[in-house]
């Protein structure tokens, strides 16, 4: 029976049990006008119908949409969303407010207002790319840390390990070259952040750098700068011609993880990527914004059954690590919802729930029964009040038949 509404609200999640943190990167750019550098789902509707979310295009700021995402994620073992956290450039050095954020709706309007928010841990990844605001010691201690503390760290569902909130940092090289005068000054600032957290009842703070160097001296420098561990935003695939053989992709993602562990077996965690295809970003508009490099990006796909093999291999490698190794505690999933950049495990018309099923099969005890009815199946609609899209039924008939 379909389109019959037995429930008044999103059915409660039935989480699967995992023995580690399974954290998916989350790109909150799907509120109308929020992204700024692209037009969200409107950029995908005509030319890329296979990238349509299974629930249809949605207003990401709606907490009910977030509750569906939480349900799908936790029922398949993903127990943490890592939100890209963008500070507007003009806010650097000033007191931070919610209005000073790019794409802050993902946390503030959606997640923190969601009914099922405490089913899902979350963390932030401080985006320090040149387009967005960076920091320095004074700004970090006087502006960023108080904002993060009050809005995130104190929340029951913020990711904490050993009672220490975790901060992920993207493009950490900018902090090294622009924000801090020396290695010692950066570590001193991070240590002051840890003391600030201790003064408010935590046991400290954990810093993680997005860095995939395989140079031992560079990896050691990150430790000297105060970082606790390193990670990759995507699973590393060396430059190749486009559309590699899938077995080669499996081997190279796994081998890259092994090679990183040779540099530092205790401070590098795995990232498992399903595919990468940024074709929607090949446009002149993207090039005019300084992103012409997407046209030269490698494109590759793993079918869900082969993504499962990557997950299995990374789990086997991680399980062999010393007990105190970070890779034994966390695995990164790339990515929940990079719909236009072209890497997502969220339910889609092209892949259904298959990537999520692979994660559940490998990283959980499979001690639950996920609900595979779509919102539309259960009589829930009206989540798209912003995006220009074809009629749902006509769209499916014309574009989504196999």
Question: Can you characterise this structure?
Answer:
The chain has helices at residues 63-74, 105-110, 137-153, 173-179, 183-199, 216-224, 246-263, 284-288, 304-319, 354-363, 392-399, and strands spanning 21-26, 80-87, 101-102, 121-127, 166-170, 206-210, 229-231, 271-273, 275-276, 300-301, 330-334. With 402 residues, it is an alpha/beta fold. It has a single domain, classed as TIM Barrel (Alpha-Beta Barrel), CATH 3.20.20. Strands 1, 2, 3, 4, 5, 6, 7, 8 and 11 form a 9-stranded mixed sheet that branches. A two-stranded antiparallel sheet has the order 9-10. Strand 1 (21-26), helix 1 and strand 2 (80-87) form a beta-alpha-beta unit. Helix 3 (137-153) packs parallel to helix 5, helix 7 packs parallel to helix 9 and helix 9 (304-319) packs parallel to helix 10. The two termini are 23 Å apart. The mean pLDDT is 93.
